[in-house]
Amino acid sequence: MSIPVFRSYIRRKDMDTVLNCLVTDSVGPGEYLDRFQKYARESLGYDFGFALRSPITALETAFEALGLAPGDVVALPALAPGYYAHALRNRGLQASYVDALPDSCVLDLESLKTGEPRPKALVLFEALGIMPTDAMALGEIGIPIIEDISQSLGAYSGESRAGSLGQISILGLE
Fold first, then answer.
1. I want to staple 157 with a disulfide (CB 3.0 to 4.6 A). Which of 11, 18, 38, 131 is the partner?
2. SS3 annotation, 21-87
3. Which domains does the chain have, with CATH numbers?
């Protein structure tokens, strides 16, 4: 059985939306962005949120919000997308890669706790929608968490919903 992941066509409704944006007399963010942001906040249960152009910009903004300075170490999952390292380089931050458990692709929290140097933050990437099974242990690591829900949107692990494990969540729609 074939399950298509991408489609090579655009629906009429989507084309109408694109054309409506093109013929407006304004330049910059508009009605569709406002509606998207409102819908995303309500759907994800966040009090605040905003849209950025790329996941790299979102990561860099999150690093800045956490007050990370050049030279600080940020823990990244070994299965994280390559653009994470690019965002770190842009901010002058250092990466410390954390391995995944071989049977589940979940971040190996023990290696994170014992690794040196001690990271100032963790970017939690939930590869293939697989969330950490022990949210309590994740909360006990004692560093801020940026949770990337790009592949786990809508996922749950027990009572924990994707986007509820970090102080900051990002969602890439590319």
1. 131
2. HHCCCCCCCCHHHHHHHHHHHHHHCCCCCCCCCCHHHHHHHHHHHCCCCCCCEEEEECCCCCHHHHH
3. 1-44 (no CATH), 52-170 (3.40.640.10)
